[in-house]
Specification:
Shape of chain A: globular
Order of helices and strands of chain A: HHHHHHEHEEHHHHHHHHHHHH
Number of strands of chain A: 3
Helix content of chain A: 55-70%
Number of helices of chain A: 19
Number of domains of chain B: 1
Largest interface: A-B, 95 and 75 residues
Structural class of chain A: mainly alpha
Oligomer: heterodimer
Strand content of chain B: 15-25%
Largest sheet of chain A: 2 strands, antiparallel
Shape of chain B: globular
Structural class of chain B: alpha+beta
Helix content of chain B: 25-40%
Number of strands of chain B: 9
Low-confidence stretches of chain A: 1-6, 132-138, 211-264, 288-309, 341-364, 369-429, 438-451, 460-471, 516-520, 526-561
């Protein structure tokens, strides 16, 4: 069973429960119901004197364990928060807090008796069984699954630990999971794993917010659902259902599932709202029209069954990897380009913008931006990975990257504009920015795209800065600021610290260029984005920008003194 | 946060429908959990003293429902959109018939917009069930549950906010029934997990969902002719 259904997780369970209108606090009830099922099966077996279906028993064990695992992980998260609060009450430093977090994790791994007692009490309190419909109170679970000093009999420690880290937003080094997995193997006898301070990479804040983007995403769910159905209709030449789920990379299946459930509920809501809501009426009509049209296609698609889908997913995984590799190559080229720019301009990007290498680099980045915009402007339902897997665009990109790699000193500018205008026009940047906003609002964006986006926007910004004619009041400056902010948001969302540091470097270059302080540049950019929030495009960017950027900003300001 | 996030999303879907008249604005909110501490940030709104036009901000001593347009809009949003029950908030003589919780406030901002505030209790509570009487202030039904209820549910059920409502007990019964239904659904969910002939793998569940969505819409299309 584990092998078959190993894809299930706490997140999956949570989605399932929520879609049925059940809060997670009722997990105790669910566990009780599962155990009851198990008992009933045993009683039936005893009465009828027949063997219980072994698959059913396995299934019961599996689900009961999964539910328990989720309950334990959630309780651990709360205990961890209690521990952090307690640590903050005393005089503390960052290292004290980290030490406390590590101590908690080690107690968890070593099944510390005190922690287990607290855990058991917390489980009983939080997942207490309520009175039943008949008015009697069901006996509470005693949670005797943890013997003293031993986690292993009922729970898979590394899975609990993994889920706990996700819920508590703890980022640990990969070494920890490897060690825990090894330790779980009963055939080996290994010493207990003990985490070191270095194993704790980050303790991230969890930020949730109600913003315009989420609302736009909610409205776009219907569109996405329609896109999925549309793609069912698009049969590739080989009649494989590879294009069936183009919006969903395999690593985000859970999100996709939630996405689809949400789409389904949105459609229901739209149907309810039809008499009063003209927009919903339109969307529903559109959905109906498409769905009816796709009736026959769907039958075909359904008949293809799971085997074809399996191959589809493995294929998509490979595509995703290719895409990632491609983005990484682009990123490397960009790094080279930036180095080249800095080298040629004596460390300051804006010092000599009309030198040939700079111009070549600008051309390269412009091509990159154009390619990226092609991706952004792809109609819904089109496989966004296509560009990176053999399309002409990729070939162009690769040629450019190769040329740049092989000939950093390559000849004279072949296509320099006679008017001396900036290679990247403000209008082009404006288009890029709008496309980015649209993409973000569509709720259909992958990490790889974000990464590429961040690179391209960064590049665009650098190029703009390198233009000597750029004035602080010009449209170029305005859009460059917006792009810079976008870039910052992108890399914050990616937790890409390398990009973050590069952005900081760029900000410092701006400071040098305009003879202002680093903090001033950041403040200007930040304030600029707030001030600009008068159009829908800006508003789309603002809320997400708000929470990520204020944190980064305050951090940067404090570093800058 | 999750509750009001979802409710807000729904509120926003309806309130942003400009065809229906006045737009009810909601403040942007952010919640940051870090090291066991929680920071809630709300945007400052252009409000002033005496700007409230709907709801109560003093524990039910004064309940307002002074603007018929806003009142109609709230009815549309809360009753049709969230399946909430109309009920009497406050005393019988000075109370008002509202749809949302008594402490939900609507203000007319200095910029002419109408802002809704304090929707933490927008969704009805779960019936107190061995968790103490105070549980009605932090243990709410999920949006899906409220929408699925056959009868509209009272956001102020089991609380003194609507204790003077002549149908208070009846409303409590409806909420209790919705709460009891949760346990039935849990039971059926457990049975579903147990009896599934094939383990539900997340890789295939999207196809299944699509199938159910397709059948749903097909049926509705046929009904529409």
């Amino acid at each position: 069973m584990d092998e078959i259904a190993s894809g299930h997780s706490g997140a999956w369970l949570q989605t399932r429960l929520h879609s049925r209108g059940i809060n997670v606090r009722h997990l105790g009830c669910l566990r009780w119901a599962l155990l009851q099922e198990q008992r009933d099966a045993r009683v039936c077996t005893a009465i009828e004197n027949t063997n219980t279906d072994p698959k059913r028993r396995q299934r019961c064990d599996y689900w009961a364990r999964l539910v328990l695992q989720e309950m334990v992980a959630r309780s651990l998260k709360n205990l961890f928060r209690d521990a952090m609060r307690a640590a903050l009450e005393n005089p503390h430093t960052a290292s004290v807090i980290r030490r406390e977090a590590i101590r908690f994790c080690n107690n968890l791994i070593h099944a510390d008796a005190e922690l287990l007692a607290a855990l058991r009490a917390h489980l009983s309190e939080r997942f207490r069984l309520p009175a039943t419909a008949a008015g009697s109170v069901a006996p509470n679970d005693v949670y005797d699954f943890v013997g003293s000093g031993d986690w292993h009999p009922h729970l898979v420690l590394w899975k609990v630990f993994q889920r706990f880290c996700t819920l508590a937003a703890l980022e640990l080094s990969p070494r920890v999971e490897q060690l825990l997995r090894k330790q779980q193997n009963p055939s080996r006898t290994l010493p207990l794993v003990t985490l070191l301070a270095l194993d704790l990479r980050a303790m991230n804040p969890k930020v949730r917010h109600t913003n315009i983007i989420e609302r736009c995403e909610a409205l776009s769910f219907l569109h996405s659902a329609c896109s999925i159905f549309s793609s069912c209709a698009i049969r590739s030449a080989s009649e494989m259902p590879d294009l069936a789920l183009p919006l969903i990379p395999p690593s985000r299946l859970y999100e996709a599932e939630e996405h689809l459930l949400h789409a389904s509920s949105k459609l229901d809501e739209a149907v309810i709202a039809m008499p009063t809501n003209a927009r919903a009426q339109y969307l529903v009509a559109l959905a109906h029209w498409r769905l009816v049209e796709l009736q026959t296609d769907w039958q075909w698609f359904n008949a293809e069954s799971q085997r074809a889908l399996q191959s589809h997913f493995s294929h998509r995984k490979a595509l995703g990897q290719q895409c990632l590799n491609s983005v990484m190559r682009a990123d490397q080229a960009l790094q080279q380009c930036l180095t080249l720019l800095q080298h040629r301009s004596g460390g300051c990007v804006g010092a000599n913008p009309h030198t040939q290498p700079l111009y070549r680099a600008a051309r390269f980045l412009e091509s990159l931006l154009r390619i990226h915009m092609c991706v952004l402007n792809a109609p819904p339902g089109v496989n966004r990975y296509q560009w990176s897997t053999g399309s002409e665009d990729l070939a162009v990109l690769e040629r450019i990257i190769e040329a740049l790699r092989l000939a950093p000193e390559f000849g004279g500018p072949s296509g320099k504009t006679t008017s001396g205008d900036s290679v990247l026009q403000p209008t082009l940047l404006e288009q890029a920015h709008k496309a980015l906003c649209l993409l973000r609002a569509s709720g259909d964006i992958t990490v790889a795209e974000y990464s590429l986006q961040a690179c391209v926007l960064l590049a665009a910004f650098v190029i703009h800065l390198s233009d000597c004619s750029l004035e602080r009041t010009s449209a170029g400056w305005r859009w460059a600021c917006m792009l810079f902010a976008d870039c910052w948001v992108c890399c914050s969302q990616l937790n890409d610290y390398q990009l973050c540091s590069r952005l900081e470097r760029i900000a410092k270059l701006i400071a040098t260029r305009f003879s202002v302080s680093f903090s001033y540049v950041l403040c200007c950019l930040y304030r600029y984005c707030i001030d600009c929030a008068t159009t829908i495009d800006h508003l789309l960017m603002l809320p997400r920008y708000h929470d990520t950027h204020t944190l980064t900003l305050s951090l940067s300001l404090s570093q800058d003194g | 946060m999750i509750v009001f996030n979802e409710a807000l999303e729904r509120l926003a879907d309806y309130s942003s429908d400009t065809d229906a008249g006045v737009v009810i604005c909601t403040p942007m909110m952010a919640l940051v959990d870090y090291l066991g501490l929680r920071l809630t940030a709300v945007t400052a709104l252009p409000l002033k003293h005496g700007s409230m036009i709907y709801g109560s901000n003093d524990g039910g001593s004064t309940v307002l429902d002074s603007d018929p347009i806003v009142s109609a809009r709230m009815e549309s949003i809360l009753s049709h959109g969230l399946n909430l029950q109309r009920h009497l908030v406050g005393n019988a003589d000075v109370g008002k018939w509202l749809y949302g919780p008594g402490d939900l406030e609507c203000h007319l901002g200095t910029d002419g917009r109408v802002y809704a505030l304090d929707f933490g209790r927008l969704l009805p509570p779960e019936a107190p069930n061995g968790l103490g009487e105070r549980s009605i202030f932090f243990s709410f039904l999920r949006k899906e549950r409220v929408l699925a209820s056959a009868t509209p549910l009272n956001s102020d059920a089991f609380s003194n906010w609507s204790a003077k409502d002549p149908d208070f007990l009846e409303h409590n019964k409806h909420v209790a029934a919705a709460t009891a239904q949760i346990y039935c659904d849990i039971q059926s969910f457990a049975s579903e997990l147990m009896t599934d002939s094939e383990p539900i793998s997340p890789e295939y569940v999207d196809a299944r969902t699509m199938a159910s969505l397709w059948w749903l819409t097909l049926t509705q299309t046929q009904q529409l002719g």
